[in-house]
Fold this sequence. Notes:
- The protein is about 40% helix and about 10% strand.
- It is an alpha+beta fold.
- Strand 2 and strand 3 form a beta hairpin.
Amino acid sequence: MEDAEIWLTPDQTARYLKVRTRTLAIWRGLGRGPRFYKLSNTDAGHVRYRREDVEAWIMSNGQEATA
């Protein structure tokens, strides 16, 4: 049995990434950060993040130590 998709609110995602919720909002406006989904066509739509997208974003933004 496959795990069900896990959807996170912006607050949950911010805690997971250890950033402020406002930072996520800024990233959304700039087209940065993890992929997000708006569950309504209105400006007040509910934003959600799939946990696997957040984890993929983390992995794709890792850096090697520089020396």
